[in-house]
Amino acid sequence: MRDALLAIGTRKGLFLARSVRGGPFEVEPVRFSTVGVPAVAVDTRGPVPRVLAGIEYGHFGPSVTWSDDLGTTWQEAPRAPIAFPEETGASLTRVWQLHPSPTEPGVVWAGVEPGALFRSEDGGVTFSLVDGLWSHPHRSRWQPGGGGLCLHTVLPHPDDPKSISVAVSTGGFYRSTDGGLSWEAANRGIRAPFFPEGSQYPEFGQCVHKVAMHPSRPERLFLQHHFGVYRSDDAGGSWTSIGAGLPSDFGFPVTVHPERPDTLYVFPLGADQDRTPVGHRCRVYRSDDAGGSWEPLSAGLPEEPVYATVLRDAMHASAAGIFFGTRDGEVYGSRDDGDSWFPVARHLPDVLTVRGTLL
């Protein structure tokens, strides 16, 4: 059995937890203890794994740093690795997503706030703005959601380097088939109930919280909206609601099982102004039939009332297991597809992102 690494980005630092040959996860001392870490990725394409972290230096602004020795030492480009060209008049607020390309060696994508996409060709050391999305005519009309105007989801196609999709809150879902030169909104069927009656299915402007894709079936996508859980079977050309059977269709994360493309996980939250687990019960919901039906999973999770939210990037499914972290600093994992859960870490700062991988 292979070793596993779990990267946990929190409001105050990065925590790495390692499991040796299926043993318990051991949480290592905090890195970047005084700064937020809203984005992490583990790039296993090279001769050694590279851990990438989007960090927030407070007064000094956001940046990207990397480690090629599993967190022992860290490096950062001498100039700001992600910076808007001066002519845009924009400045970087946060790095929301880091995603190594599955088809192009050295390429790493970054989704940022204010809603924009950046591309690196040197393994995440330096990045350049993807002009095609930045110059899209919709962009000036995007409005920030509660978390800001964030490009939080980047989905490169597993086989076609020219095909890539992104999600922006609250711009909606967009896709490109020419490597990012041009983009189209792909939101047909996603209802935006916060729009006036009669205009609740707009071309763009949906408050997409997260989108997930399985690499063996890239035409099928799962989407968690501000209100609604959806599936697309044509790469975002159209969307169908699959929220029936959930106690609430409001939530932030959605993730897909690493081996079963019809199995997905969500964490339903209460009404929009509540944003705590439904009934204050800590439960993950799993569907094994692409959203046709849902099952609550709670074995090993707290039985007492829970009031903490799970954020959009704080749930992740990989070959290492299914993991999620909460805003009260609890992290849980499962090695049996969610049938039972075990604690990975307790009493951390509030969890912003988790990423698990086998080494």
Q: Can you characterise this structure?
A:
- There is one protein chain.
- With 359 residues, the protein is an all-beta fold.
- Helix content is 1%, strand content 40%.
- The chain is built from 1 helix and 27 strands.
- The radius of gyration is 19 Å and the shape is globular.
Helical residue percent?
A: under 10%
CATH superfamily: YVTN repeat-like/Quinoprotein amine dehydrogenase
Provide the CATH topology.
Methylamine Dehydrogenase, Chain H
Helix-and-strand structural type: mainly beta
| β-strand amount | 35-45%
SSE order, one letter for each helix or strand: EEEEEEEEEEHEEEEEEEEEEEEEEEEE
Q: Going across the biggest sheet, name each strand in turn.
A: 3-2-1-27
Which architecture name does CATH use? Answer: 7 Propeller
Please work out how many helical segments DSSP would assign.
1
Number of domains: 1
Mean pLDDT: 96
Q: Could you tell me the radius of gyration in angstroms?
A: 19 Å
Per DSSP E runs of 2 or more residues, the count of β-strands stands at 27
Low-confidence stretches: none
Features:
359 residues; mainly beta; Methylamine Dehydrogenase, Chain H; four-stranded antiparallel β-sheet; 1% helix; globular; Xyloglucanase_GH74
Could you provide a short overview of the structure?
The chain is mainly beta and 359 residues long.
List the helices and strands and how they pair.
Layout: E1 4-10, E2 13-19, E3 26-27, E4 36-43, E5 50-56, E6 62-67, E7 94-100, E8 108-113, E9 116-120, E10 128-129, H1 131-134, E11 150-156, E12 164-169, E13 172-176, E14 184-185, E15 208-214, E16 217-225, E17 228-232, E18 240-241, E19 250-256, E20 264-269, E21 284-287, E22 295-297, E23 315-318, E24 321-325, E25 331-334, E26 342-345, E27 351-358
Antiparallel strand pairs: 1-2, 1-27, 2-3, 4-5, 5-6, 7-8, 8-9, 9-10, 11-12, 12-13, 13-14, 15-16, 16-17, 17-18, 19-20, 20-21, 21-22, 23-24, 24-25, 25-26
Organism: Streptosporangium becharense
InterPro entries: WD40/YVTN_repeat-like_dom_sf, Xyloglucanase_GH74
Protein name: Glycosyl hydrolase
